[in-house]
Amino acid sequence: EPDVTIVSGLKDMEVFEGDDVTFRCQVSHENARDVEWKLQDVALQNNEMNEISVEKGKIHTLTLRKVTEQDIGTISFRVGPHMSTA
After folding, report:
1. Is 19 in contact with 67 (CB distance < 8 Å)?
2. Distances 10 to 2, 22, 46, 48, 59 between C-alpha atoms, Å
3. Out of 35, 52, 75, 77, which could bridge 46 as a Cys pair, Cβ 3.0 to 4.6 Å?
């Protein structure tokens, strides 16, 4: 299985409280496994507040819905040994 790397990393975002924010990270291969999103070292799951999806097979997205002050912090995306943060 080829080593999946991060082609385009996360970018820092500023949003207003109550808005949605979307982070994108592009990887080198489709169907990447061992992918993880975190906020302040807490793993995020796909639910009504966090939408985790993959677009066009290689672009992994995380949308945080109706952000609050508690959502301030570092977002990280990991695929295998590679990581990007914002």
Report:
1. yes
2. 22, 10, 18, 22, 11
3. 52
Q: Name which of 64, 77, 57 is nearest 10 in CA terms.
A: 77
Helix (H, G, I), strand (E, B) or coil at 37: strand
pLDDT tens, residue by residue, 3-61: 899 999 999 999 999 999 999 999 999 989 899 999 999 999 999 999 999 999 999 99
Asked whether 29 and 58 are in contact (CB, 8 A), the reply is yes
Is 15:23 a contact under the CB 8 Å cutoff? Answer: no
Q: What is the DSSP string of 5-21?
A: -EEE--------TT--E
What is the Cα–Cα distance from 63 to 59, expressed in whole angstroms?
13
